[in-house]
Design brief:
By secondary structure, this protein is mainly alpha-helical. It folds into 3 domains: 108 residues, Alpha Horseshoe (Serine Threonine Protein Phosphatase 5, Tetratricopeptide repeat), CATH 1.25.40; 105 residues, Serine Threonine Protein Phosphatase 5, Tetratricopeptide repeat (Alpha Horseshoe), CATH 1.25.40.10; 121 residues, Serine Threonine Protein Phosphatase 5, Tetratricopeptide repeat (Alpha Horseshoe), CATH 1.25.40. 79% of the residues lie in helices and 0% in strands. It is built from 18 helices and no strands. Helix 1 packs antiparallel against helix 2, helix 4 runs antiparallel to helix 5 and helix 11 packs parallel to helix 13. It is globular and about 65 Å long. The model has no long low-confidence stretch (mean pLDDT 94).
C-alpha cells in the first residue's frame, strides 16, 4: 500500500477494529511533510489502543507541533486524545488542561467534551458529581437506541456507584453494561464490563461470579494487542485467588500483571499490583515484605489522583506497622486513610474484599 492517504485511512480503520498493533506497521513508512502531523496522531491512537499511554502522549504532542491550526478536526482530536491519556494515567490536572485546549477549538464537539468532563470527575474520585452528569447521558443513549454508548455509560456509572457505596446498584449496572455491549457486538467493551462485574462481585463476597467474570474477560483479550486489558485480567483474577486463599496462584498472576503494567509504564496500576502482593505477604505473615510492597504502592499512588489507592495502601500499611509494634505511627496513618476516604466520598476503608 504505497499511497500515504490510503495507509493513514487503513491504519485508522485498524485502530477502530481493535487491531492497533497492525496499524503501527502501516504507520512506520514516511509520508509527505504535510501529512506527518496526522501520521503522528494516528500512531498515538495505535499506541493508546495497546496501552502505551506515555508513548501515545508523546505522539499527540508531536502531532500538535506539526498540524496546521486550520485542520480543526485533527487539532481537536489530538488535544482530546491527550486529555484521555492523561486521565488514564491519573494525571487529572494535565487532563483538564488538555481538555480546555480541545474545548477552545472552534466547532469542538460539546457532547464528547461533556462525557470526558464526567470521566475526569470519576478520575478525581468525585463520584456523586460524575453520576449527576452521566445519568442524563445514559437516558439520551437509550432514547436513540445506541447500545454501544449505553454499555459504556452504564460501565462508567456502575464504577462510580461502586466507589460511592451503592454496591447493589453498581452490580445491576455492570450486568446491564455487559448486556448492552453484547447487543452492540463490542467484544472490547464486553471485556471491560466483565472486569467491572468481577470487581463488584468480589467486593460483595461473590467469588465464584467474580472468578468467572475475570476468566471470561481474560479469554476475550488473550493474545490480543490490549496489553493494559490483559494486565487487568491477571490482576483481577489474582485478587479473587488471594481472597480464596490460593496465595501461590494469586502471586503468579500478580507478577504476570506487574510485568505487563511495567512494560506499558502504568505507574498507578502497578501500585495496585504492589498493594495486592502486599496483601499476599500479609496473609502469609511476612510482615517485612508486606510493608515494603505497601510503601511501594503508596509511592505509586502519590503520583496520580488515586484517592482510593491511597486509602487502601495507608490502611494496609497501618495494620502492618501496628503488628510490628509501631502503634502510634499506625494510628496516625489509619486516621489519615479514613479522613481521606470521607473527604472524597469513598467507602474503600470499609471494603474487606476490595
Amino acid at each position: 500500500m504505497s499511497d500515504p492517504f490510503s495507509r493513514l485511512e487503513a491504519a485508522r480503520e485498524l485502530c477502530a477494529d481493535g487491531r492497533p498493533d497492525r496499524a503501527l506497521g502501516l504507520l512506520s513508512a514516511a509520508v509527505p511533510a504535510d501529512l506527518e502531523g496526522e501520521r503522528r496522531l494516528v500512531r498515538g491512537e495505535a499506541l493508546r489502543g495497546i496501552g502505551y499511554f506515555e508513548k501515545a502522549m508523546a505522539e499527540y504532542r508531536a502531532a500538535l507541533g506539526l498540524l496546521d491550526s486550520r485542520d480543526r478536526d485533527l487539532v481537536f482530536e489530538a488535544w482530546f486524545a491527550l486529555a484521555r491519556c492523561a486521565r488514564s494515567l491519573g494525571r487529572v490536572a494535565e487532563a483538564r488542561k488538555a481538555l480546555a485546549r480541545a474545548r477552545a477549538v472552534p466547532g469542538a464537539d460539546r457532547e464528547t467534551l461533556a462525557l470526558e468532563d464526567a470521566l475526569v470527575l470519576r478520575a478525581e474520585s468525585r463520584h456523586r458529581a460524575a453520576l449527576k452528569a452521566l445519568v442524563p447521558m445514559l437516558a439520551a443513549a437509550k432514547r436513540r437506541r445506541d447500545a454501544g454508548a449505553e454499555g459504556f455509560l452504564l460501565w462508567a456509572i456502575a464504577g462510580s456507584r461502586r466507589f460511592s457505596g451503592d454496591l447493589s446498584g453498581s452490580h445491576r449496572d455492570f450486568k446491564a453494561s455487559l448486556s448492552a455491549f453484547r447487543r452492540a457486538n463490542d467484544a472490547e467493551g464486553e471485556a471491560y464490563a466483565l472486569f467491572g462485574l468481577g470487581g463488584i462481585a468480589r467486593l460483595r463476597g461473590l467469588f465464584a461470579e467474580a472468578r468467572a467474570a475475570y476468566a471470561e474477560a481474560g479469554k476475550l483479550l488473550k493474545g490480543g494487542p490490549d496489553l493494559f486489558g490483559r494486565a487487568y485480567a491477571h490482576c483481577g483474577l489474582a485478587n479473587v485467588q488471594r481472597q480464596l486463599g490460593l496465595l501461590a496462584d494469586a502471586e503468579r498472576n500478580y507478577r504476570a500483571s506487574y510485568k505487563l503494567y511495567a512494560g506499558i509504564g502504568d505507574r498507578v496500576d502497578l501500585a495496585f499490583v504492589d498493594w495486592g502482593l502486599g496483601q499476599v505477604h500479609q496473609r502469609r505473615g511476612e510482615l517485612a515484605p508486606a510493608e515494603s510492597r505497601y510503601r511501594a504502592a503508596l509511592s505509586g499512588f502519590a503520583g496520580g489522583s488515586e484517592d482510593r489507592g491511597l486509602v487502601l495502601a495507608r490502611k494496609s500499611l497501618a495494620e502492618i506497622l501496628h503488628a510490628r509494634g509501631r502503634t502510634k505511627e499506625a494510628e496516625k496513618l489509619f486516621d489519615s486513610a479514613v479522613s481521606l476516604a470521607r473527604r472524597s466520598g469513598l467507602t474503600a476503608h470499609l471494603e474487606p474484599y476490595t
